[in-house]
Design a protein that fits this description.
The chain is an alpha+beta fold. It has one domain. Helix content is about 15%, strand content about 10%. The protein has 1 helix and 4 strands; from the N terminus they run E-E-E-E-H. The strands form 2 sheets. It has a two-stranded antiparallel ribbon with strand order 1-2. The protein starts with a strand and ends in a 12-residue tail after the last helix. The N terminus is likely disordered.
Length: about 110
């Protein structure tokens, strides 16, 4: 299991500022985000929250790892924009596979 850090409030015990590890957040399977290494998975499992007549809402958690130098190259109390964009990209890749039965091979789509 890979240890991740929580994205709680700045003054909480599990904040970026305090950088305390938590290990109860399970990452999504690497195949859903097209990664070969578990270390590169940046999001937790995606859950469907609810559906309206026209929209469906999902949730997941960011899994920042401070040892990833491109994402966290300086000490700070927030998630970098580069990491946030990578998380959004991984969610966009995972949703079609998990909730719309898009197969892992044989199809190509542009985000």
């Amino acid at each position: 299991m890979i240890s991740y850090y929580s994205t709680g409030l700045i003054n909480s015990d599990f904040s970026f500022a305090n950088q305390k590890e938590v290990s109860f957040i399970e990452p999504i399977e690497k195949k859903f985000v097209h990664k070969l290494n578990d270390f590169n998975v940046a999001i937790s499992e995606i859950d469907k929250i609810f559906t309206t007549d026209s929209d469906t809402f999902y949730t997941c958690q960011l899994l920042p790892q401070f040892s990833k130098s491109p994402f966290f190259d300086h000490s700070n109390d927030h998630c970098s924009m580069v990491h946030l964009i990578e998380c959004c990209r991984q969610v966009a890749i995972a949703l079609p596979h998990k909730f719309h039965n898009v197969p892992f091979e044989g199809y190509c789509y542009i985000i």
